[in-house]
Sequence to fold (302 residues):
Amino acid sequence: MTGGLALTVALAVLIGVSLGLLGGGGSILAVPLLVYVADLPAREAIATSLLVVGVTSVVGALPHARAGRVRWRTGLLFGAAGMAGAYAGGRLAAYVPAAVLLAGFAVMMLATATAMLRGRRTGPGRQRRELPMARVLLDGVLVGLVTGLVGAGGGFLVVPALALLGGLPMPVAVGTSLVVIAMKSFAGLAGYLSTVDIDPGLATAVTAAAVVGSLAGGRLAGRVPEAVLRAAFGWFVAAMGVFVLAQQLPEQLRTAPLPWTVATATVVVAVAVAGVRRRRQQVPPRPVSSDSNTTGHRQGSM
Fold:
């Protein structure tokens, strides 16, 4: 047990590093860590992950707030709607089988990996000073519901929503996302605590390690190219999603090598194709030089 706890705490540092660098991804790492390394039941693992990510997000948001990288009105509005959805998701999770929760978590991981590898759209006309209130409330409730149900989908849904919908600069979107994640995580935790007990010793140790990781991630932010981070983390999340989804398959399918190999290859290829197509769409057409135009006219006249 001591060795498993030490490994869990050591790996929990990655949770904080992810939050500090990318403004999300804490629960994507925390739930598999607590289920497969700490050997917690699914509901207890999700509830513990919400506590860990909530506290770590509060600590990670402090330097962003001091630097003015938090859009408070947008964050509080989105977070309030997300809290309602997260609390409802946490209460609904008591009626959902553990295998279904983990399967939903795996699907969320694969969707997150695809979004990470595809990147974000950029272009004129997407900058807005204020987000539409109705859209913020709707997105907040939906993202919160997912967070409360499966303990995931926080930052990696909030950051793109803030960057795409409102045109917030990435540093501001990351800082605002941490405020939203903290609010939704605590609301989802409140929903779970009505039916789930948390090991206080394990939760404290994992949270402390994640906080240390978030401080390290904050120092690394800006030094590592965002595209490199997004691609590496996207592939890692895709692999973890496939692994978690495999664990929920019937015994016959888990032991059959050919179907599982085909399924894995299909998922990996689908994610890769999505990333390649998105990159091709972002590449601007090559300008035609004046020399080539002149040559073309000369050849045509001859």
About this structure: The first helix runs from residue 2 to 22. Confidence is low (pLDDT under 50) at residues 122-128, 294-302.
